Amino acid sequence: MNVEAVCDVGINSDEILRQLDRLLADRRFSAAERNTRFLKYIVDRTLAGESAGIKEIVIAMEIYGRSVDYDPKIDSIVRVEASRLRAKLKSYYEEDGRLDPVLISIPKGAYVPVFEVRDQPRDSIASLIAETQPALPVPPAPLQRRAATWIVAVALAGAVITSAGLLSRPRAAEAAGSHNAEAVAAWREGNDLLTLDPHTATTERGMPLTLQRALERYELAVGKDPSFAPAWASLSEAYDYASAFVGRDTPEDTRRAEADARRAIAIAPDSARGYAMLGLAMFCGRWNFPEAEAAYRKSLALDPRSAYTIVEFVDLLRQSRRLDEADAALFKARSLLPGMPVLASKQAELEVDRGQFEAAVDSAKYAISLKRNFGRAWVAMGMAYERQGLESKALTAYRTAAAMEGEQRRAWPALGYLLGRTGHADEARSVLRQLETLNTNVRNCAFQIAVVYAGLGEKENALNWLERAVRTHQALAPHAANEYRFDTLRDQARFRAVLKQIGRAG
Question: Which residue has the higher pLDDT, 216 or 199?
């Protein structure tokens, strides 16, 4: 496809280059130099009318420095990187780029990119709401009491993103700066590995190999260049991930996560990611909620568009029942980040907390319209149905989530609890066995197991496992304070002791 062909389908090269800039500024690409170079190379050559020259051997030589005797049968680097690039493009267009007007894709089995104009370009969240998929016909109603403000805020979001968005997500080159080249390469490799998400990685024993490898690469990066702040922040995140897996020293992983985040901040006081990781360590690791809040606020002041920092901060506010503050923080975030399923799903959870169950269902459905296989949104929808007494619908939502790869730790406890509470004890115990196997072989699931026992009405077992969650310092333990499934335990002295231990008594 040359420039003339691009124009023939209604896209000019300037539009494509603007879309390329949006892609390269995104978190999926900004820390992945290989994918960035690959994508830019094939787009530039195509726009220059040189698509016929985009061959595997040429890419291997010009992008990855392979010699003229490169043999793709022996060295599959181009195919591997193309596969990763396709996956990242798919992820981007399903989430952050859902509203983008130009689609850039790479067909399987080829390396020449295809450029397309969206069939129905949608430039605001309001129009997207109006076009909710037929299978999910109820339009979402997040923040109904401020609907007019929401529409105005979203209308302004494009300007906000244009002026602030690229600054909030530093490109890999800017983050790397003049740091040691080997350290930068190791850090980027670690980022690529961590992007695979250890929560969803397949493993039969202990933490997944991808996480182990990421830890090793980050350790190498900070060893080669101790002044490399982004690598310290990434290492902190990796230790936080690692702390939940079987065979790990959880207190030591927590200590390292905190220390590495503080190291990143000491080197770069404006490190939003460093403060976010410190907030995570204080919140989920130390249960030091005031310091966690201060760190999250500092991080969001530096980078208000970090979706997962916002999610964690909102959860912190929810735990202390500061629901109006959580609502306001989420409203601001969704104005800056329209079309993010994780924020719509968090809105649903917050509405469940507030007893606004119909609104919660609508928000969950909206999140699913953005990303159909978004398990946490299905779980949130199930919670809303459950609280309305619509158990059949809730079970369907939970089963849907449980069938999704990597969602079992969220969906199984919700499913097992409701099965137990509605008299399906045998099925609930089957879920229990699966959770106990996961707890023994892979990662700490004591809190989730306690939830299922609560549904079965076995208070002693529920308290035993909840105390175990506290004793093993499971990150979910502080959620016991507001977990409605533990309502039957609240008159127990042991439960009140648990709340005291996690700093949520009273």
Answer: 216
Q: Averaging pLDDT over each range in 109-118, 364-373, 392-401, which range is the top one?
A: 392-401
341 within 8 A of 374, measured Cβ to Cβ: yes
Rounded to the nearest 10°, the torsion over CA 245, 249, 250, 253 is: -100
Q: Quick check: is 185 in a domain? A: yes
| Count of Cβ atoms closer than 10 Å to residue 87 Cβ | 14
Helix (H) or strand (E) holding 105: strand 102-105
Q: Provide the domain limits for residue 100.
A: 3-117
Question: CB neighbours (10 Å) of residue 186?
Answer: 24
pLDDT of residue 417: 98
- Same structural domain, 415 and 395: no
Query: What pLDDT score does 290 carry?
Result: 96
Calculate mean pLDDT across residues 87-111.
85
Mean pLDDT of the region 349-353: 96
Phi, psi of 212 (to 5 degrees): -60, -45
**C-alpha distances in angstroms, 158 versus 125, 308, 340?**
11, 20, 14
The CATH number covering residue 411 comes to 1.25.40
Q: Which residue has the tokens 């990796």?
A: 238
In the chain the first and final C-alpha atoms are separated, in Å, by 66
Say whether pLDDT at 383 is over 90. Answer: yes
pTM for the whole structure: 0.68
Contact 146, 331 (CB under 8 A): yes
Q: Which of 51-65, 142-156, 303-317 has the highest mean pLDDT?
A: 303-317
CA-wise closest residue to 417 among 383, 453, 389, 382:
453
Tell me how far apart the alpha carbons of residues 88 and 232 are, in angstroms, rounded to a whole number. Answer: 24
Long-range pairs for 429-435: beta carbons < 8 A, 24 or more residues apart: 429/456, 434/408
153 shares its domain with 189 = no
Buried b (16+ CB within 10 A) or exposed e, 368-385: bbbbbebbbbbbbbbbbb
pLDDT tens by residue, 258-286: 999 999 999 999 999 999 999 999 999 99
DSSP class per residue in 222-261: HHH-TT-HHHHHHHHHHHHHHTTBTTS-HHHHHHHHHHHH
What is the C-alpha to C-alpha distance for residues 465 and 468, in angstroms, rounded to an integer? 5
CA 63/CA 82 separation, integer angstroms: 12
DSSP 178: T
Instruction: Return all residues near 455 (Cβ < 8 A) that are at least 6 apart.
Output: 416, 417, 418, 419, 420, 421, 428, 485
Beta strands per DSSP E along 151-228 = none
